[in-house]
């Protein structure tokens, strides 16, 4: 038994939930995939997969083994791509986690250009604003907005996101247009709370010509996802702080109104963070450099046009 190919086949079955799909992605027969997994189970003397007529799922032992296997496969891939002749053409699996609005509106629409340059990199993308344990979850990097709180991580600042305060016209008709940021903390006004990774609702600071005001607001809904914050603002649940790239289209359609002319929020820094003890592989370096270039370009729907 070729242990490397057996582990590769097992990992692909777990990821696709199917022996047939795993065989297709590995370009081998379904019979070969089945035999490799069976040989692996026999060697380990443990059942790794639960097989039904509809789907294949990892057992508890299989799930634990899978996490070890993908780390080993990633390390082997990094060792190969670190060679001088291989680093010119980065390849392999790259596990990332990205905030959902950034993925939907900026990153994914631009990925065809990335794959035109790096066709052999496979991106496994988690889409969330949650706190990700990069080491335990075997994630290569995360893209995050805001100042980083985990100082143990390595990070590269890749850009900034311009912010604004917005509200739906129907909401403003009900409560009136606030003339000063302080008004948001008093009835009848509400704000849409955003829960950052520390678990606390975000308080934003607006700067005027002669003063700065920190606004916590009165929240009747708090969310931990950018798309949910946008939806709450559109639904008229309160004033909401949003990156300009998320709000621009809705402002142009009259679905949101930008508040507080003459005031501005500090831009939100955007970082790519990765574990300090992880080798920066050619594929990870290629992805980071590409995101930096993406944030510098005046693409439609991004930071500048």
From TrEMBL:
Similarity annotation: Belongs to the LysR transcriptional regulatory family.
HTH lysR-type domain mapped to chain residues: 1-59
InterPro entries in alphabetical order: LysR-type_TF_proteobact-type, LysR_HTH_N, LysR_subst-bd, WH-like_DNA-bd_sf, WH_DNA-bd_sf
Lineage: Bacteria, Pseudomonadati, Pseudomonadota, Gammaproteobacteria, Oceanospirillales
Protein name: LysR family transcriptional regulator
GO-annotated biological processes: DNA-templated transcription
Keyword Cytoplasm recorded: no
Organism field: Vreelandella songnenensis
Alphabetized GO MF terms: DNA-binding transcription factor activity; sequence-specific DNA binding
Keywords for the protein's UniProt record, in alphabetical order: DNA-binding, Transcription, Transcription regulation
Name of one Pfam family that matches: LysR_substrate
SUPFAM superfamilies the record matches: Periplasmic binding protein-like II, Winged helix' DNA-binding domain
């Amino acid at each position: 038994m070729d242990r490397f190919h057996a582990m590769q086949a097992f990992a692909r079955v777990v990821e696709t939930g199917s022996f047939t799909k795993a065989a297709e992605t590995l370009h081998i027969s379904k019979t070969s995939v089945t035999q490799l997994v069976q040989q692996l189970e026999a060697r380990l003397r443990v059942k790794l997969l639960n097989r039904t007529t509809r789907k294949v799922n990892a057992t508890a032992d299989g799930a634990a083994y899978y996490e070890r296997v993908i780390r080993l496969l990633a390390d082997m891939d990094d060792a190969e791509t670190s060679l001088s002749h291989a680093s010119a053409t980065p390849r392999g699996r790259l596990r990332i986690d990205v905030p959902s609005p950034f993925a939907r509106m900026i990153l994914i629409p631009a990925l065809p250009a990335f794959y035109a340059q790096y066709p052999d990199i496979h991106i496994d993308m988690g889409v969330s604003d949650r706190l990700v344990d990069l080491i335990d979850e075997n994630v290569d990097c995360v893209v995050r907005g805001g100042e980083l709180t985990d100082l143990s991580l390595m990070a590269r600042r890749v850009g900034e996101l311009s912010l604004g305060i917005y509200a739906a016209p129907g909401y403003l008709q009900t409560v009136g247009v606030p003339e000063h940021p302080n008004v948001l903390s008093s009835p009848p006004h509400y704000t849409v709370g955003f829960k950052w990774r520390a678990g606390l609702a975000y308080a934003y600071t607006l700067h005027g010509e002669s003063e700065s005001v920190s606004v916590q607001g009165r929240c009747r809904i708090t969310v931990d996802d950018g798309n949910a914050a946008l939806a709450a603002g559109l639904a008229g649940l309160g004033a909401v702080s949003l990156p300009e790239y998320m709000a621009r289209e809705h402002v142009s359609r009259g679905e949101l109104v930008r508040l507080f002319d003459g005031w501005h929020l500090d831009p939100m820094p955007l970082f790519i963070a990765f574990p300090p003890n992880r080798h920066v592989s050619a594929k990870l370096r290629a992805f980071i450099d590409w995101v930096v270039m993406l944030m510098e370009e005046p693409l439609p729907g991004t930071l500048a046009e």
